Amino acid sequence: MNETDKPASLNFIEEIIEEHLKTGKNDGRVHTRFPPEPNGYLHIGHAKSICLNFGLAKKYNGLCNLRFDDTNPSTEDIEYVDSIKEDIHWLGFDWAGREYYASDYFQQLYDWAEKLIMIGKAYVCDLAAEEISEQRGTPTRPGKESPYRNRPVEENLDLFRRMKAGEFPDGSKVLRAKIDMASPNMHMRDPILYRIIHEHHHRTGDNWCIYPMYDYAHGQSDSIERITHSICTLEFEVHRPLYNWFLDTIDIYHPQQIEFARLNLSYTIMSKRKLLELVEGKYVSGWDDPRLPTLSGLRRRGYTPEAIRFFAEKVGVAKRDNVIDVALLEFSIREDLNKRAPRTMVALNPLKVVITNYPEGKTEEMEAVVNPEDPSSGTRKVPFSRELFIEREDFMEDPPKQFFRLFPGNEVRLKYAYIIKCDKVIRDTGTAEVTEVHCTYDPESRSGMSGSNRKVKSTLHWISARHCIPVEVRLFDRLFIKENPDEVEEGKDFKSNLNPDSLKVITGCADPAMDEVKPPDKFQFERLGYFSVDPDTTAEKPVFNRVVSLKDSYGKVKN
RNA sequence: UGUCCGAUGGUGUAACUGGCAACACGUCUGACUCUGGAUCAGAAGAGUCCAGGUUCGAGUCCUGGUCGGACAACCA
Questions:
Q1: CATH placement of domain A343-549
Q2: CA A549 to CA A526: how far, in whole Å?
Q3: I need a surface site. Which of A31, A72, A309, A453 has the fewest CB within 10 A?
């Protein structure tokens, strides 16, 4: 990179931060946080947020906390906090012990609630949930004030303390802020601060039966942690006045909330609710199904943290709604794996080739490059013999003019081995399916020999029939057939756009060296794509997931 | 009928904050190649939602529209 180049442009959040740095706001501190709710698994959209928050902290020599927004015991679970921590670490970020929970602040939050009551800014409301929602009005029609709105401070305090003491059943009372039922912003119409939930919390156990709402907990948690920039997604933009109101009214340190547009990816869904529906409805094998955009799914699929971080950077940060082309994600992983994945040859759909003029029983060890992109990777040995398997797709008896591969009378090179010529096609007498192709080889054309310098249109991958081992290969395609899975006809939902062919399981013929692979080893199957060893692998049977295919310009002319 | 936000090639993001629209992905050529990959070279593709205005000059500023999104869980 040329240092005289223009400085890389900043995204709008970095501009805000640099402005703050310039004016000395926050004493030059930059402190962010990633605040997941432990009620689901992280997905690629969260990865964008994680990279943003931890990335900003790193860039500006600041800190980024991990904070679980665990204010609703009825949907949250320890299983999720564990998976979330694992995913963030896997992605390559660390919070250095600053692992916090909104529930750590329940007492402080409670004390501030009493303060709000005492200064006349909060009251206990006995209305039923339906009544509250009814009286809230609509975005275009103002709400009505609760009959309990003007309860005396002493009564509010007493009632709130008794709520906390567990004297009242779920749903019977809530604590509300006293703001403005006529506000054009729905969130300012006396929002609920506390509700009664008699449920066991994964961290605080049974200490509490009243729990703070998101709006009441989030900003104050930011404040307690001295967060400088509280970065969240666009849907919280309308909440910002309320975020500010709490901080100003309670009168504590005031972080700045900044909203950005969440990530959307074509041909997939990002909604936690829908992801959960696919998992629970067994449309996929679990949260880590390799077709899912969850981090655990992508990891199992074979995506690397490097590729995801690269992707997150390429995607950018702005405020307008966006749909990123999955092709960019695929580009990201190819870019990474091309440089580091060892090559191997596998026939996914094998077709037998007999080299009729090659001595029976003879075996040669061919020398192959491990990775041509990495000179330090060295070479490997590949056994060659009279009977081989090639890819069925690489042979056509009656090919179109654009087809350069094997066909009767044509010569192709077997990578790292010999040039062969197709002489004869053997068919099954019943089905007429091609079962074998007979070829002859040119003994002078072995790689490295002078006879190998001949120009041949095509080079094929192959595997020795006698030496190869069977491997299970899982071929994934996009989970949805539509770019926007939510685009459905009346009465149907996103599941009607599920791709019935998103998973194909086949048995391929692989290099014998593949018998000692272990997850998460990654390879390039030459000419096919990148494959990652699945945890289902056993000593008897390696299992590979196709991460992504190689770019295929012939596939395009074919269609 | 409200409030808030947004609008730049097919997609995403830029434009030193008023100076003749750039980068990436994708697409298409060509070169090279023992991966129809990679690499290299190049091309097409937007005149910046619309209409006015300010200005020598506007994607950037002003006014008025249009379109899109968010907001009416005791979810986050």
A1: 2.40.240.10
A2: 10
A3: A453
